[in-house]
Amino acid sequence: MESKAAELAAEQQHFDLARKHRERMRTELGEAPDAAANAGTGRRLALFRRGRKEAMGQPDQEVAFGRIDQESDETFYVGRETIFDDQRQVLVVNWQTPIGTLYYEASAEDPRGLTRKRTFRCEGNQVLDFDDLVFQQLAQAVAQLEELPDAALLAELDRERTGAMRDIVPTIQAAQSRLIRAQLDQILVIEGGPGTGKTAVALHRVSWLLYNHRDRLRPQDVLVVGPHPAFTRYIRSVLPSLGDTDVEQLDIDQLGPPVQRGRAEDPELRRIKGESRMAGLLARALEARIGTPEPAERMLFDGRFITLPGVEVAAAVAEARQATGPYAQRRQRLRARLADLVRERGGPPDPERLGPVENLLERLWPLQSAPAFLRGLYGSAARLAAAGGDDFAADELARLHRRGADRLSEEVWSAADIPLLDELEELLNGNSRRYRHIVVDEAQDLSPMQLRAVARRSSTGSLTIVGDLAQSTGAWARDHWEEVTDHLPQTLPIVVLGLRYGYRVPRQVYELAAELLPIAAPNVQQTRVVRDGPAAPGRYVVERGERAGRVAQLARDHLAAGRFVGIVCPAASRADIEHALHANNLPWARADQGELERSLNLVSPQEAKGLEFDAVIVVEPEEIVAEDPRGHRLLFVALTRTIRYLDVVCAGDVLPLAPVPDVTGRIPRQRAVIEPDPDPTVELTSLDRLAEDLAALVTGGAPVPMWDEVLQRTAAILDERSGRPRPKGRHHRP
Ligand SMILES: Nc1ncnc2c1ncn2[C@@H]1O[C@H](COP(=O)(O)OP(=O)(O)OP(=O)(O)O)[C@@H](O)[C@H]1O
């Protein structure tokens, strides 16, 4: 057998050769002439080449991260891009190709025709070392190899954070790879605990889909929606680093017209505005703007009166009302009809001279902008009452009523207003941009109106929905995924698949946070943590007056050690903490302004969703719990943001498990987790869907030989839950 040194030298030779050819390919891309049949094609070619060049690894980046050896004796190197030599021989294959996929998927149970999987450790393009998995040897010894974190993954997880998410191409795990490659034509719900890689998987899935469905999907056809600007900023470099530059990435608040945002609103009003019955209210209110004509409509053209009988005008209005299409389009239809009626009576043929028709049209079918219309509607109790119909109680309509700013340009809108404006935009103009695939991250919190805004942008019904029910908080805290998927297009199958291994949060921290789960989300499966952290969580219970000073001191210590730090601070303590940071001369970035670049970041628990830091300082858990009706979930979010260090600084309990009074002094009611009633009328189709979901879970979660075992255990769990006697011979829960 070759010595390791000799093998390393041989690998280095291959890496050097591949790098030489990568640079040759880069040069060729730069030099290729822009000549094309026409200017448009030339521009597209130039853009394509720019995209290809950007996607190429930098000269100092390793050409490959892995190698697979097949039983057929063929060997492939796997990297971020395919590299050819000048004879078109492949030196490295792209991770997104079927061959590249084998690198992630081969396991001891199912080696997929491989004899060996090699993972390289590199510094630049210098091969320092490699680890081998030799499948035949391992097959007998390891039952579930794919679940064990390997050295390469652990080293990657321990790397310091910077405020920008990185790609995980070299270390994608088998279970993650299955979700990345799941079929395009479905609504795939990726669920899992904090730090299981849901966001990373969803972004790599986009890249994989773009590569493997080039015929149907261009980068411009894909939209990624995140919960807030700091999150979008955090993830925005992942797709470009995978070579996919033109994918649109927006915050949920950007799905709507550009208006001034920032209006605060109480949760009850937020809840009303988020409900899908608001769509009906808006549609009725808009139709109510359409007027009725006078018995006779008299118009003056070039000194001559023309009179249209009211019944004819009313018929034209009725026809436009019944037509399909958005308000503005139907208005055009009415305009054309009125012009015809005028011409039939000898009016001017020239549309330029139809000013009086425009006036009549404006009176009957006024032009509207979404913000002007909604401001007017909120401002009128009578219009709200008329549009509310039986769907809204009087006190709900009273809550919606508000006096608008003096000028439209001064109106400040709330987050819950944005999807209403977007709904109106669609009713008025119907020109929302459509996408062929949409990814929605942190989807567990979105209101039905926000989900409608997502759904209307989907031209195919193909979506990837990402979230964690245990982190679902706010006015729309959810306990079941159906509460989300019911508002999405129903054209394709819905499959919920889970990620179970926690890569971010160290064991000591997760154990603390998981104490909240029995109250926060008793139905949610716990994460299996893959690694230990460097230290137990720091618990600092201090006098209230000392709290902010202690936070500043801890932040300073973490910063001195070169860590990327997040302070998760409830609103009630925000001013105190800001003051202490100022006084200690510690500049920080504000997540509420989409910033996340400095070493020190101040985030609210809500903004903390999806983010991660080397060190996290959580301020006053009791206040965090009091901040939301599902406050224990919010605290769970706050405690699970760290990749290494956690400190909790408080005057109250480190881990308040009992309900804590909210800001008004009331004990918030925890909404009961609703177990679905056994319903004998459940339709076969939904049972089929449930069975399909379960089958998908089993397929994705266990190797084939274990399926029977899993099903037997599932049956035992169900028996236990239902209190039914367990038939003899069935497996017991371990
Ligand atoms: N296979 C992997 N290789 C290397 N790093 C990984 C892998 N999977 C996940 N990670 C890392 O683990 C961390 C958590 O991943 P991610 O943010 O995608 O988790 P999440 O499930 O979306 O978490 P949350 O629910 O808190 O938003 C990230 O730093 C990510 O890069």
TrEMBL record:
**What GO molecular functions are on record for this protein?**
3'-5' DNA helicase activity; ATP binding; DNA binding; hydrolase activity
The residues the entry assigns to the signal sequence are none
InterPro entries, from UniProt? Answer: DNA_helicase_UvrD/REP, P-loop_NTPase, UvrD-like_ATP-bd, UvrD-like_helicase_C
State the superkingdom.
Answer: Bacteria
Q: Where is the UvrD-like helicase ATP-binding domain?
A: 171-506
UniProt binding sites for ATP: G192, G193, P194, G195, T196, G197, K198, T199
Q: Name one GO cellular component term.
A: cytosol
Q: Which PANTHER family match?
A: DNA 3'-5' HELICASE, UVRD / RECB / PCRA DNA HELICASE FAMILY MEMBER
Q: What is this protein called?
A: DNA helicase
Species the sequence originates in: Dactylosporangium sucinum
